[in-house]
Amino acid sequence: MSESQSPKPNLDLIQMVQQARMMHDRAATPSAFSAVYWIESKPLTAYPAPTAQAGEWVIETTVAEVDVLWAAVRAATEAGQLGYKSKVSTVPAKHQANVNARLIVVRTVDADDAVDVARVGEALRTLGVGVMRYERA
User: Domain range for residue 32?
Assistant: First the structure.
């Protein structure tokens, strides 16, 4: 192989690692876990891939509330009712001074798709989410 050619990535290995991470994250409880910064969830069935204009609903919560809220968001994400991915912080984000603060982020496919953004926002409200904000990813 010449220097100008780089080896092709082993996509099967990458997919296996990603699947193992998702299995691990399904069983992880955010308030009791800090080995990784984020725990993630994805739909269990096919879901559209994100565009370059992906966005995210950001929910600020606390250690006392994060486990129950994350369980609801994870279940709705896996059922394909939210976006293409959701994640929860296991420690405070950089801008959060309170050691008990946590974030839940729900990613949407395209921030310019107002109908889908509103659909996901309404689904989150149905899950009991009160205060949240939408940002471009």
Answer: 11-136
